[in-house]
Amino acid sequence: MPALAAAEAATVQEQQRNLAVIRINAIDLLAREKRLPLPIQQRREVLRAYYEEQAGELLWLRDDRAEALVAILNDAGSDGLRPDDYPTRQLMSLMQNTDPEDVRGLALIELFFSAAFLEYSGDLSVGRFLPAKVDPNFFLKTRTFDQAAALQAVAKADDLDAFFDAWQPPSSYYASLRGALAQYRELAVEGGWDLVPLGPTLKPGMTDPRVAALRDRLATTDGADPSPASGAEVYDAELVKAVERFQARHGLDVDGVVGPAALVAMNVPIEERIQEIELAMERWRWMPRDLGQQYLMVNIAGFELRRVKDGRAEERMSVVVGKPYSRTPVFSDQVRYIEINPYWTVPSGIAVKEQLGKLRRNPGGLAAQGFQAVRGKDVYDLTSINWASYGPGNFPFQLRQQPGPKNALGRVKFMFPNQHDVYLHDTPSRAAFSKAERAFSHGCIRLSRPLELALQVLTAGGVTGWSMDRINQVVATEKNTVVKLATPLPIHLTYLTAWVDEDGVNFRKDIYGQDAKLLAALDGKALAW
Fold first, then answer.
1. CA nearest neighbour of 332 among 141, 143, 173
2. What phi and psi values does residue 505 have, to the nearest 5 degrees?
3. DSSP run (H or E) holding 305
4. pTM higher than 0.85, yes or no?
5. Residues 398-455: pLDDT tens digits?
6. Which of 187, 215, 353, 446 could form a disulfide with 427 if both were Cys (CB 3.0 to 4.6 A apart)?
7. Whole-angstrom Cα distance, residue 180 to residue 168?
8. Is 410 in contact with 427 (CB distance < 8 Å)?
9. Residues 414, 424: Cα–Cα separation, whole Å
C-alpha cells in the first residue's frame, strides 16, 4: 500500500475510533447521569434506545450535519414555525466552545443536537399542540410522532433538506400555503401595503382622491394598474375587476362596491395575513396524512365544501355552518350512507328550547309542517297532547318531522355517524346561501346543491344504478329511502382562515375565534431550552 493511502486509511480509522468513544460516552451519560439538561432528559429513553440498544451511529458529529441542522432550524420560518423556538445559538456556541479533546463534552453536544432534531421534527410533522388542548371544539384524532423512527431515518438520510421535506404534511394545500408564506414575507420586506383611507362607499365610475390609494393597494396583491389612462382617481372598469378579485379572495360580496367591509379587509396589516397563513399551516399538521384518494372537505371558516379526487377539486359548493354559539365541530370521518326524503328527529335541547313554546301556543301549526310526537314505538298527533303539562326535565317525547317539501333537512342528508350528531343535508330555506357569511345552523352543514352531491357521492362510494332522474323520482315519492355506500367516503371538517386556490391566497374572518386561541397558545408555549 502506498504511504499516502496508508496514512489516509489510518486517519479514517482514528476518526472512527474517536466517534466510537464519543458514542460510548453518550450512552454512559444517558445511563448514569441523573441531572442531564432538560431537553435531553425529556427524551432520555428514546435517545438511549437509539444510541445503546440499536447501536446507532453518531448523527451530528460527522460530516457537516451539525451545521446543516442549524441552518434548517434557522429557516424554520419557511414552514410557519418560529426559529426562536429552537436553540440554534446554544448549539452553535457549544460547537465553537467545546474542547475537541473533551469526548464527554462532545457526547453532550451530540445529545443536544439529537434533542433539538426531535423537537423540530415533531413540530414540523404533527404540530406544536394537541388540537383539543387549543380548542375543545377540535376533535381530530391525535397524530403521533415516532421519535425512534425519526432517529433511525435521519441516520440513513443523505440530504437533510430532503429528509425534512418528507416529514412535512404531504397535502398540496400545505405546499401552496408554504409558497404563499414566502410570497407574503417578501411583500412584507418590500414594505407591504399602505392603508386605504376610510370614507364613503366607493362605487364604479366615481372620482375620488381615495381611489389612488385603493389602486396602489390592489396593485400590490390583485393586479390593479398603478398608472391607468383614465387617471389615478377614477374608479374605472379595470380597477373594479381588481376589487372584485380582492372581494372573492376575502369572502366578501363580489359587487365591485368598496364599502366598510372591503376597506377593513384591505387595511389588515400584512403581518396579520402572514400570521393567518402560519396558523393554517399549523392546522394542516393536525390533519390526517392520508386524506383519501377521493374525499369531501368542508372548510367551516370558508363556508365551502369541496369534493376532491386525485388531488383535484371536482366540485365546490357553498354551505351554511353552525352559529358561533352552536359551532360545527372539526373532525374527520367517513360518509357511510345517504337518506333521500329523511325524517328530522329534533334534538331534545332544540325541542325544549325552541319548539315547546310553539307547541303550547299552536300545536296545529307544527302538525301542518309534518311534525309528530314519538314515544317509544308510539306516534302521536301533536294536537292530542296537553303540552302545558311538559317542560324542561319532563319531556318524554321525541319530535319528528316527516319527509316532504317542508322538512328542515330538505330532500337528502349525508350520514357519517358521529358523537356530535352532525351531518350534511339539504334545506328548504335557501336565502342564507346568498350571503357572504353563512354561520346560521345549529351545527350541521346545509348544502347549496345537495342532489348533485348525492349523485356524486353515490358514484364515488361505488353505488351503481343511480342517475339524477332516479334520484328525482325517489324524491317525488316522499318516502324515506336509505342508500348505503359500497365504499365509505372520507370527509374532513376543517377550520381554515387562509388557503390558496386558483383565485390566489384566500383569507376569511375568524368566525369562531379559533385563530385567536391558537395564537395565544403559541405565544404562551413553555420552551425547554
1. 141
2. -85, 125
3. strand 304-309
4. yes
5. 999 999 999 999 999 999 999 999 999 999 999 999 999 999 999 999 999 999 999 9
6. 446
7. 16
8. yes
9. 5
Distance, in Å, from the CA atom of 308 to the CA atom of 460, rounded to the nearest integer, reads 10
Is there a contact between 358 and 366 (Cβ–Cβ < 8 Å)? yes
DSSP class per residue in 333-352? EEEEEEEES--EE--HHHII
Nearest-angstrom CA–CA distance, 362 and 356: 10
pLDDT at residue 525, as a whole number? 54
Give dist(CA 214, CA 232) in Å, integer: 9
Side-chain-facing half-sphere of 150: CA atoms under 13 Å: 25
Beta carbons of 170 and 284 less than 8 angstroms apart: no
According to DSSP, residue 211 is labeled: H
The residue from 250, 420, 442, 444 that is catalytic is 444
Nearest CA among 475, 340, 342 for reference residue 401:
342
Q: Report the DSSP pairing between strands 294-299 and 481-494.
A: parallel
Q: Is residue 444 annotated as part of the catalytic site, yes or no?
A: yes
Q: How far apart are CA 411 and CA 413, in angstroms?
A: 7
Residues 58-82 pLDDT 10s = 999 888 899 999 999 999 999 999 9
Enumerate residues 6+ apart whose C-beta is below 8 A from 419.
Answer: 139
Q: Which of 250, 425, 442, 492 is catalytic?
A: 425
Mean pLDDT, the chain, whole residue set: 92
Return the C-alpha cell found at 156: 440513513
Active site includes 250?
no
Grid cell, residue 92, equals: 452553535
* Residues 399, 346 contacting (CB under 8 angstroms): yes
8 Å CB contact between 234 and 240: no
